[in-house]
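New to this. Look over this protein:
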Amino acid sequence: RYFNEMMGVTPIQYVHQMKMEKAKYMLTATDDSVSEISRALGMELCFFSRVFKKHTGLPPSGYRKMF
């Protein structure tokens, strides 16, 4: 509860936010595949794609194409 009060999100939401920020960087700064990025973040590909789209509004491949 204390974490949620201080950060405004649950611990798992915070972890997902940090991973998605790292994923956005990796998608724009590297040529790694989406599956390699999901593995590097310790996430299954389908779960990673779902969380990424929820966070950014775009699938990982769509985000990469925009940048």
Summary: The chain has a mean pLDDT of 97. The chain is about 75% helix and 0% strand. The two ends are 37 Å apart (CA to CA). The first helix runs from residue 2 to 7.
